[in-house]
Specification:
Shape: globular
Number of strands: 29
Distance between the termini: 40 Å
């Protein structure tokens, strides 16, 4: 039997697993990813990429490639309701692209999962230290005090053993790893037994006001999704096992009839591309960790598709976990840092799954005729604005050092995002002027810790002995050159007239941002202190815990 070694084994090659491998490799960790399927997804299970996930793609240099592969925001960031796509009662919301634009250097985007996975896989395979293997099944897992030994089998039947320190299980809602660990899932019974029918058809005859990312239809009850902005579409409908229904009922004839009824054109030329049964669920694992094994993505939480939160929540699991694993593996952090993964991500997952369930209930009301078309479109469009949920969550764990300030309290925390550099929150986006032109504060973050501070605050000199652990970014309030640093050499700081106010610091303040872009510690007023900064880093990294 062949033997392999890797610091981290990732099980599952969907978006979450691939993102975990990318982020681990960025931190210099050797990672082996195994995926039982021979290739990336052929079915567009997910399409919506939230603003926060787009920010992560931007940090990996993938934003433009994803946007080229996806659908134009102007046409498809909208939702429709009606009896069919061509019915007189069809109503479409406005896309409202500019509503949340000030909050980020990027914005929500639509790119089907099958295309996204190709981009993520190509990028992961290009990174040193990342070994990406499709067509490989994990056959067994033996956690031990020093790590994990796992058995692997490829498509030819060849057996391999891999020894690693940690495992990230991103193997989906029916996670074999989660089941083997005996971790239960919590949540209501399945909301519905669903069928997705992917098809190809020329719907170019539909006017612009009938093109939407997602349309909820009543006659018969179903949803139509745009898969690309050309010819691929998907109808989602359901069946009831208690009434004798099953996936076998969806013959070619039944699927063609369902598609044509949804469009509202009885003789529409249609090519069926695939049929996939699935369960609509809202569940969260009781635990996200068992010793050296961590659950991420659908293995840890399953959201309903309404809102498009599931894949995005999982990708942010991977982003949260990767830097912590890297810090422990490199000896920069204590093992206790890994306990903060569940403490931080499970509350976010619970809230996200609950909000997806709320979205699903609105859809059921509409399809059952309990809402008028106008009420339905207003409520559906209102729930499409979710930056409060996507950007406004805050972590509360031992890896965050509170500064005594109160969190923002918007009237609608689902829709409304209030930027805050309070410890635990995502570091706010602020445009800066830099040597290369305009850039976002977010473009300066990761993969190390980042200390943001006004120029001349004294924190640059105070951090001199910690340059191996963090990057220091000075921001000037205007175009005046900053004073020389401690070594006497002039520095050209970034410039912003509003940054200090938006980050809540005075002329001697500083904000320490973790590698995942969340604020770890803030000193609003100073004075600069090498000891205070060292203690903050040690506290976040779990030294002494």
């Amino acid at each position: 039997m062949n033997e392999l070694n890797a610091e981290v084994l990732v099980v599952g090659g969907g978006p979450v697993g691939l993102c975990a491998a990318i982020e681990l490799a960025r931190h210099g960790i050797s990672v082996l990813l195994v995926e039982r399927h021979a290739g990336t997804a052929i079915f567009p299970k997910a399409r919506l990429i939230t603003t926060r996930t787009m920010e992560l793609l931007r940090s990996w240099g993938l934003q433009e490639e994803v946007e080229r592969a996806g659908m134009p925001r102007e046409e498809y960031l909208a939702v429709g309701v009606g009896s069919s796509l061509t019915a007189p009662d069809f109503v479409r919301s406005a896309a409202e692209l500019d509503r949340d634009a000030p909050q980020s250097p990027t914005y929500t985007f639509l790119c089907s999962q099958d295309r996204l996975e190709v981009i993520l896989r190509r990028h992961a395979e290009s990174l040193p230290g990342a070994d990406i293997r499709f067509g490989v099944t994990m056959t067994g897992l033996r956690p031990g005090p020093g790590g994990v030994t796992a058995g692997l089998r490829d498509e030819s039947g060849r057996e391999t053993s891999v020894t690693c320190r940690y495992v990230v299980a991103a193997d989906g809602s029916r996670s074999g790893v989660r089941d083997a660990l005996g971790i239960a899932v919590e949540g209501p019974p399945p909301l519905g037994h669903m069928i997705s029918i992917m098809f190809e058809a020329d719907l170019g005859f539909l006017p612009p006001d009938r093109r939407a990312a997602l349309s909820f239809l009543r006659d018969p009850p179903c949803a139509v999704e745009a898969v690309d902005h050309e010819r691929r579409w998907m109808v989602q409908t359901g069946y009831e096992p208690e009434l004798g229904g099953s996936p076998a009922d969806f013959t070619e004839e039944v699927c063609l009839a369902a598609v044509r009824a949804a469009v509202g054109v009885p003789d529409l030329p249609v090519t069926l591309l695939g049929v996939m049964p699935w369960l609509q669920q809202a569940k969260v694992a009781a635990a996200f960790r068992a010793g050296p094994v961590f659950l991420a993505g659908d293995a840890a939480h399953v959201a309903t598709p309404q809102g498009g939160f599931g894949m995005n929540c999982g990708i942010q699991d991977a982003h949260n976990l990767a830097w912590k694993l890297a810090a422990v593996l490199r000896g920069a952090a204590g093992e206790a840092l890994l306990d903060t993964y569940e403490a931080e991500r499970r509350p976010v997952a619970v809230r996200t799954v609950d909000e997806s369930l709320n979205n699903a209930l609105i859809t059921f009301e509409m399809m059952e005729g309990r809402l008028s078309m106008r009420e339905a479109i207003e409520r559906q469009a209102g729930r499409r604005s979710n930056e409060g949920l996507v950007l406004g969550f805050a972590y509360d764990s031992a890896a965050v050092l509170p500064d005594g300030t109160a969190p923002p309290a918007p009237a609608d925390p689902y829709r409304t995002y209030v930027p805050a550099a309070r410890p635990g929150h995502r570091a706010p986006h602020v445009w800066l002027s830099g040597p290369g032109g305009r850039l976002s504060t977010l473009d300066l973050l990761g993969p190390r810790f980042t200390l943001l501070t006004p120029s001349g605050s004294g924190w640059l000199a105070a951090s001199a002995h910690l340059t191996a652990s963090l990057s220091v970014v000075e921001v000037a309030p205007d175009d005046l050159a900053a004073p020389p640093d401690a070594g006497g050499s002039a520095r050209a700081p970034y410039v912003s007239a509003t940054w200090a106010k938006e980050y809540g610091v005075g002329p001697e303040g500083a904000v320490l941002v973790r590698p995942d872009g969340h604020v770890a510690w803030r000193s609003a007023a100073g004075p600069a202190s090498a000891r205070a900064l060292a203690e903050a880093l040690a506290g976040v990294l779990g030294h002494g815990r």
